[in-house]
Design brief:
It contains 18 helices and 12 strands. With 451 residues, it is α+β, with helices and mostly antiparallel strands. The longest helix has 32 residues.
Length: 451
């Protein structure tokens, strides 16, 4: 008698044979983006990757991604690597689970309602405009460094208002750069080496976090002792749940640190990648500038202008498709689940990679091409919902997604309305995936031309 066929839910996902996960680890360390793309291409929409004895499931079909992030959200925890982020972020929204996450999400949401987000628009444009004043016609700038500086100044102003002096902003930028470099696939981060092990990187990141803590706790103390202010921190200080409970200093610190890392780094990368693409696609740049000239003219853009800038929106979306700042989203299964007809056991790590899905020709013809018009009209409507998910999805979707979109649009409009940026000859974009998808090396050099 033949044995009964296994049920769908008991099927084992395919993947590269490597029982201990050592070969996969070497491939992952050498080329993370390449490994994920090749595994998805060779083994399909649900693939199993072993890394040092831990099972990872790469999920790459939009329907299955929706199942992980939405349908099964109740049994999905933060991935195991989040413990590394806790070195800097503590128990903020990016790293917490369970009741703490629910409580913090509810309080944080009060700072990101549409009315509040719109109110941040004036500061975003004003600070960007002030940050462009040192630029000079025909000067050469480092694209990522300048976008990092500008977005840090914007986030610092929106979060703390006038509570940060220029020296404080520079200290935050330098400390955050140290933290980002630590997360950028350092051996300590990959192996989750304890903070007390005195390696040079561990010591540097510990010192950087201590400097950030001193600054943030000082500002929180000043705010508690003084008058309320109408900025993001003021909203968080006033936020309370149904029982009247508010965030304590540690919770405020963790969320402020998370906003610095997430709100600054991802927008800086979005702008740097977008301006790089505009510099290599002059016809797109001309269309964008024409739209800005017609809608905004010589004044600063406002939050109300954004609805009248559909091409700018498409340009940013296409940039985030090609170069998603968050290039992968991780979860840990708290229970056995079925995804795409395969069983994913409790404790397994699940990866949904924006990098992989955003470059899938099934959803994006000519996936390596920069085509903002793919988002227009019927073409845009034909793209499956979770074929494009730069901010994640489900209950844990990035709480600042609308804030980040407004910020990127207003900053891009301010920059492109005043300057053209031309890539210097011999420059080539290479990518360095860490927590975010960064530009490798020292960054790209561009020449400024005043409008």
């Amino acid at each position: 008698m033949n044995a009964p066929a296994p049920s769908v839910a008991s099927r084992r996902a395919p993947g590269p044979a490597d029982r201990l996960g050592l070969r996969n680890l070497v491939r992952f360390a050498r080329d993370q983006l390449g490994l994920l793309r090749s595994v998805a291409d060779e083994y399909g929409d649900v693939a199993r990757i072993e890394l040092l004895g831990q099972s990872y499931f790469l999920v790459s079909h939009p329907d299955d991604i929706e199942a992980v992030l939405v349908k099964h959200a109740r049994v999905m925890l933060r991935d195991s690597h989040s413990v590394v982020l806790e070195r800097a972020l503590g128990k903020g929204l990016l790293t917490s689970n369970g009741e703490l996450w629910k409580h913090q999400r509810k309080l944080m949401a009060q700072a990101f309602v549409p009315r509040r987000i719109q109110s941040y628009g004036a500061a975003m444009a004003r600070v960007t405009d002030a940050g462009l004043r040192p630029w000079r016609d025909r000067a050469v700038i480092n694209l990522h460094q300048e976008m990092s500086r500008l977005t840090m100044e914007v986030v610092a102003d929106v979060l703390f208002g006038s509570g940060l002096a220029p020296a404080d902003v520079e200290q935050v930028r330098e400390s955050m750069e140290t933290v980002n470099e630590f997360f950028a696939n350092s051996p300590e981060a990959i192996t989750m080496l304890p903070a007390w092990v005195p390696t040079p990187r561990n010591r540097r990141v510990t010192a950087a976090v201590a400097r950030l803590d001193e600054l943030i706790y000082r500002i929180i103390a000043q705010r508690r002792a003084g008058e309320s202010r109408d900025d993001l921190l003021g909203t968080l200080l006033a936020a309370q749940d149904d029982d009247g409970e508010r965030m304590n200093d540690r919770q405020l610190r963790d969320e402020a640190m998370t906003l610095f890392l997430a709100g600054h780094e991802t927008t800086a990368l979005t702008l740097a990648h977008t301006l790089y693409l505009l510099s290599t696609h002059p016809e797109v740049e001309r269309r964008l500038h024409a739209e800005l000239a017609a809608v905004v003219g010589d004044r600063l853009p406002t939050a109300d202008d954004v609805r009248a800038l559909p091409y700018a929106e498409r340009v940013i979306k296409e940039s985030m498709r090609l170069y998603p700042p968050a290039w992968t989203t991780g979860r840990e299964a708290a229970e056995d689940v079925e995804v795409g007809g395969y069983r994913i056991p409790k404790g397994a790590q699940i990866l949904t990679s924006q990098w992989v899905v955003h470059h899938d020709p099934r959803w994006f013809p000519n996936p390596e091409g920069f085509d903002p018009d793919r988002w227009e009209g019927e073409r845009g409507k034909a793209i499956p919902r979770f074929a494009f998910f730069p901010f994640g999805g489900g209950p844990r979707v990035c709480i600042g997604n609308h804030f980040a979109t407004l910020e990127a649009t207003l900053m891009l409009a301010t920059i492109v309305g005043r300057w053209r940026l031309d890539l210097l000859p011999g420059q080539r974009l290479t990518l360095k995936p860490s927590v975010t998808l960064r530009q490798a090396g020292d960054g790209l050099l561009v020449r400024l031309s005043a409008r």
